[in-house]
Amino acid sequence: MNAQSQYDTSQIAPANRFSYWSDAICNSYVRLGCDAKNMSRFKGSIKIKHHSVLSISEVSAMAHTAERRKQDISASTDEYFLLSLQRRETSRIKQFGKSAILHPGDMALYSSSDPYELNLSNNFEKTVLQLPREKLLARLPNAQMLVAHRIDGQSGIGRLVRENIQEFARFADDKNPTLQSMVQATLIDLIATGLANEIGQKAELSSPEQHVLMRAKSFIRSNLGLPELDRNRVAAEIGMSVRRLNAVFAKENYSIAEYIRSERLKRVAIELRDDRYAHLSISEIAIRNGFSNLQHFSTLFRNTQGRSPKSYRSGE
Question: Where does the HTH araC/xylS-type domain start and stop, copy by copy (predicted)?
Fold first, then answer.
């Protein structure tokens, strides 16, 4: 069963805002103690979706601290891991004597089973995933070793995790319980893989093929501008045969080549209407996204969008 909750201090009287915020955090995550220098002017919002296995939330607020204390832990029955993905400003996570400072794109894990402290900067934004402790430990028994450890969002595996969290979070809303369960399991696989990479271990994945697909798609999206990007290049990057990788893609009803072409056309369509690329010609935009045959590009674009690139750009 899915449920969505939202908390916003803007509708609360100034004198009550921070106490409201403290209650909102406890209701959304786990019991915590919160503090801020400017409680009466405090502003913050939480949008959280509770799925059958995990919860995904978007948090933004002014500077404050949140502390998981021993008395909070003793009053709790459930145990969770939380993964914090920084989207704006910075935050610091302290646990087990370790400290991780997160900048936009960075991630870090922490555990509700032990005391921790969060120091959140002014006007921060972050995405938080909360998952049952046993689900991650089943895939990565040493996950506890990686709490308060910064995962660089610009590194290869860090970028893979960061780019796919939002994509998988959207699919987690699907009303099909089988698909939703698979998507949540794959998202936990993704987190386990990112963490395992940090300590040179392998995670026990619930769906290895989904992990392969994520890696392949991420590589493709990051290299659309390469004219030589094809199924052979992708398969070599992933480390499997073209035939096997195509079989994985085929389960989603398209080939590697079709996915590359589709993503290139999507990127061109976005850039044609993006003011940042207004100084570029249609040909230049097509070339920068890997199309070398401009006549073929125009035909593909028309077949996809139902009009020429020129008409699409002008909004005709």
Answer: 214-315
pLDDT tens across 257-298, in order?
Answer: 999 999 999 999 999 998 889 999 999 999 999 999 999 999
Domain enclosing residue 123, as ranges: 3-201
Phi, psi of 57 (to 5 degrees): -135, 155
Residue 157: both structure tokens together: 């595996």
Residue 254 CA to chain centroid, in angstroms? Answer: 24
| Same domain assignment for residues 161 and 22 | yes
Residue 199 carries which DSSP code? T
Please identify, among 180, 201, 222, the residue that sits at the C-terminal boundary of a domain: 201
Mark whether 194 and 300 lie in a shared domain.
Answer: no
Contacts of 148 (CB under 8 A, 6+ apart): 93, 94, 95, 96, 98, 99, 100, 108, 109, 110, 116
What whole-number distance in Å separates Cα of residue 299 and Cα of residue 280?
20
- CATH code of residue 292: 1.10.10
Report the DSSP beta bridge partners of residue 57. Answer: 48, 128
Question: Could you report the per-residue pLDDT of 32-70, keeping only the tens digit for each?
Answer: 899 998 888 899 999 988 888 888 889 999 999 999 998
Torsion of CA 15, 17, 22, 28, to 10 degrees: 160
Question: Phi first, then psi: what are they for 118, rounded to 5°?
Answer: -115, 125
DSSP 152: P
Residues 167 and 304 in one domain: no
**CATH code, domain with 37:** 2.60.120.280
Distances (CA, A) of 188 to 158, 184, 220: 14, 6, 22
**CB-based contact 268:284 (threshold 8 Å):** no
3-state SS track over 225-241: CCCCCCHHHHHHHHCCC
Please indicate, yes or no, whether residues 255 and 134 belong to a single structural domain of this protein: no
pLDDT at 82: 93
What pTM was computed for the model? 0.65
* Number of domains making up the chain: 2
